[in-house]
Amino acid sequence: MRTKFLIPFLAIALLTVVTSCEKEEESSNTANFNLNITGLEDLGSTANYEGWLILDDGPVSTGVFSVNSNGQLSQNSFEVNRGDLNTASTFVLTIEPSPDNDPAPSDVHILAGDFNGNSASLSIDHGAALNTALANSAGSYILATPTDGADTNENSGIWFLDLSSGSPSVGLELDQLPEGWAYEGWVVVDGIPVSTGTFRNVDDFDNDDSFSGNQGGPPYPGEDFLINAPAGLSFPTDLRGATAVISIEPVPDNSPAPFTLKPLVGGIPEDAIDHSNYSMDQNLVFPTGVITR
Question: How far is CA 23 from CA 10, 13, 133, in A?
Fold first, then answer.
């Protein structure tokens, strides 16, 4: 006779356990969110990506992760405080040094997005990231080597300026970048990228002239490739057939190659003539993503 009472008793006990677990889960102080991001690059061993929830009283870290050479995140799901996740207005992704002794976000904000319900679309043009989609980017350049005098090795230098009026003028149209970022000019010769220097203003010198001669160049970004050639190249060279690039670089920058943000790219014609203007093309393919809470 006892058997007929056993099944109802077990059912009640099981229901009590399930209900208890559900209540415990609901009252847990932690919750998970997922990141789905494409277009990020491998930062090497001296930097990481770090996520931040933006709350009324400041940012809260969601943890760091890396990206491999295929663009895959080392971690897609993150556990954070439930209350912080539910009340956050914005998610921001930064680049941080590794090791990192500063508990605050760096100035290098690469993606951000505002929550709309349980998700946020992440982009570079959010006000908490680069604050521009770079849609108006445009550029031109000439081949010339003013730092070793006139009519000498003229195809071995590139200057991002406009000479169409007969006098040098601004050749790049680029939006102002926030702190934590700088533009950098490049030529890619035989697959080897060589920097012309970083800059924040299109109408001033860049920060490097380590390959130039001993005479002055124009007050615009650019470089003559005359001395101190990197491994695999010899200077002077011939830039015809190479590729000109304007990238956006994190500051500080731990890589000798262009960063993934390259708003302007232009193949230098095989028959390019020195002191003639050539245009660059927009290359507005940037990282994007979604966070789901």
Answer: 20, 15, 45
How many structural domains compose the chain? 2
**pTM listed for this prediction:** 0.89
Which tens digits make up the pLDDT trace of 183-225? Answer: 999 999 999 999 999 999 999 999 999 999 999 999 999 999 9
Q: How far apart are CA 64 and CA 263, in angstroms?
A: 27
Rg, the chain, Cα only: 26
Is residue 112 located within the same domain as residue 179?
Answer: no
Residue at 272 is within a domain: yes
Distances (CA, A) of 291 to 27, 83, 133, 150, 160: 23, 16, 20, 55, 38
CA distance 34 to 280: 38
Same domain for 142 and 268, yes or no, is yes
**Beta pairing, strands 278-279 & 172-173:** unpaired
In a domain, 278, yes or no: yes
In angstroms, rounded to a whole number, what is the distance separating the alpha carbons of residues 137 and 152? 32
Residues 6+ apart with CB under 8 A from 74: 65, 66, 67, 68
Query: Are 84 and 193 in a shared domain?
Result: no
> Domain of 103?
29-131
Would strands 157-159 and 222-224 be described as parallel, antiparallel, or unpaired? antiparallel
